[in-house]
Amino acid sequence: MKSNGSPQRLIQGTRLPTLAVRLGGDGSSLALLGLRGRIGGPAHDTGRSTHLGRTEVTVKKLLMLVVASTLAVACSSEKEPAQAAVTGLETAVAAAKPDIERFAPDRMAAVDDAVTAVKAKFNSGNYASALADMQSATGTLTAAAEAAATRKGELSADWATFAGLPATLGRIKGKVAELEAMRRLPRGMDKARLEGAKSSLDATTQLWDDATDAQEKGRLIVAVAKAKQAKALVDSLVTTLGLPAAM
């Protein structure tokens, strides 16, 4: 079928599809509704050409709005899991921090740096990157917590080796009291030697009390260090007083 007019005349008067954007109340839904306009006439029709140009610009703006809104929706969908991950990481750090600071203090700076980096990306709105860095941060925290647990286990095992020390201290105290009650000290023991043993016993008792107090407060490093000092004095007193070496 032949047309009764030129292609330009056929296009002229045709309506453009109506376009507009409506955002839902939460800004997350989009609907294309409409912008009405006619395609202009001949090329020399400056007014109609200008109208067409405005329509093209408007459509471009609408497409940009669609892209921006889609990105907003995507970011919104990543924010909640990122927020949950950050909160979980902070909770885990709070739980592990006391032992890390006590038993692996050299690891704490790396943990703090990893958490700071994740939170910085989250606070800047880079939720995907924050989630990606979460694995590294949790790995750093896990390694620090495991190092602390290993050291704590070693110290606990060391502390257990001093279980017999209080009984030996009791025997030393008994021997000192026995010697003090004597009118005449046995061969190899004199008053000066006995006074030195009493002074050493007082120091040993104080060290053991401090060690026990530290252990009860979870300060195992201090507890074991003081217990070792007490043990050295106990061994010396056992020799001085002629007691059996068994603890």
3D architecture notes:
The chain has 247 residues and is an all-alpha fold. The protein has three domains: 7-69, no CATH class; 79-148; 161-241. It contains seven helices and no strands. Helix 2 (46-103) runs antiparallel to helix 3 (108-123), helix 3 (108-123) packs antiparallel against helix 4 (127-160) and helix 6 runs antiparallel to helix 7. The chain is rod-shaped and about 90 Å long.
Strand content: under 5%
Low-confidence stretches: 1-74
Average pLDDT score:
76
Rounded to an integer in angstroms, the radius of gyration calculated over CA atoms is 41 Å
Total number of strands: 0
Features:
3 domains; 247 residues; 7 helices; mainly alpha; disordered N terminus; 72% helix; rod-shaped; 0% strand
Structural topology:
Layout: H1 7-11, H2 46-103, H3 108-123, H4 127-160, H5 165-181, H6 191-216, H7 220-241
Helix pairs in contact: 2-3, 2-4, 3-4, 4-7, 5-6, 5-7, 6-7
In brief:
The protein has about 250 residues and is mainly alpha-helical.
